[in-house]
């Protein structure tokens, strides 16, 4: 019972961040599953993809109803990225759990650095045309998809800035579009992982329940949080967690 309640609470926190920022919460899921709930790193990547995918899908529907999504951009980015996530899932099984967490920490540091320095353009939602950005969306989505499958993350911490900076997607549409892409990429990643391992349903289901609830609340909060404050705060959290993971896992490789 204690583990179940803890999984619900932790899942709620992940979902809250995912719904509010269009990504980000998923990168916290794997460390929480491994170091707090005791999952094996490889099993945790599968659990994370399941949780993140369902949570993002529910939150994406909410954002679509609010008119804050570009379905075309989300389908291109998520569809191509989802296919490449299968490659990432296969690569995941070729490295040890310790090496996986060490690489994950380095990815978190890179994400924290990028988020702390990114500059977002002024919104011009009336000028955005998905068909003019299809190639950029597809290429970027494919690269992010490999990360999705390999690390068991939705990729939102990369997807949202990539959509804004590489494809000129206005921030008004970026959160909902990111959630749609995350759901598609995570779904493909799950397919790849389920063929390679098992899912710890006793942890996954309560974590998922909490995450979906948190995602719905976060979706309502998205319009209330100053983007710059949210981005800088999350970047700091990523950096601190990455340092801890480096300490726990990377000493053997130094």
UniProtKB/TrEMBL annotation:
<dbReference type="InterPro" id="IPR002781">
    <property type="entry name" value="TM_pro_TauE-like"/>
</dbReference>
<keyword id="KW-0812">Transmembrane</keyword>
<dbReference type="Pfam" id="PF01925">
    <property type="entry name" value="TauE"/>
</dbReference>
<feature type="transmembrane region" description="Helical">
    <location>
        <begin position="173"/>
        <end position="191"/>
    </location>
</feature>
<feature type="transmembrane region" description="Helical">
    <location>
        <begin position="73"/>
        <end position="91"/>
    </location>
</feature>
<feature type="transmembrane region" description="Helical">
    <location>
        <begin position="97"/>
        <end position="116"/>
    </location>
</feature>
<keyword id="KW-0472">Membrane</keyword>
<protein>
    <recommendedName>
        <fullName>Probable membrane transporter protein</fullName>
    </recommendedName>
</protein>
<keyword id="KW-1133">Transmembrane helix</keyword>
<comment type="similarity">
    <text>Belongs to the 4-toluene sulfonate uptake permease (TSUP) (TC 2.A.102) family.</text>
</comment>
<dbReference type="InterPro" id="IPR051598">
    <property type="entry name" value="TSUP/Inactive_protease-like"/>
</dbReference>
<dbReference type="GO" id="GO:0005886">
    <property type="term" value="C:plasma membrane"/>
</dbReference>
<keyword id="KW-1003">Cell membrane</keyword>
<feature type="transmembrane region" description="Helical">
    <location>
        <begin position="7"/>
        <end position="37"/>
    </location>
</feature>
<feature type="transmembrane region" description="Helical">
    <location>
        <begin position="43"/>
        <end position="61"/>
    </location>
</feature>
<feature type="transmembrane region" description="Helical">
    <location>
        <begin position="137"/>
        <end position="167"/>
    </location>
</feature>
<feature type="transmembrane region" description="Helical">
    <location>
        <begin position="229"/>
        <end position="247"/>
    </location>
</feature>
<feature type="transmembrane region" description="Helical">
    <location>
        <begin position="198"/>
        <end position="217"/>
    </location>
</feature>
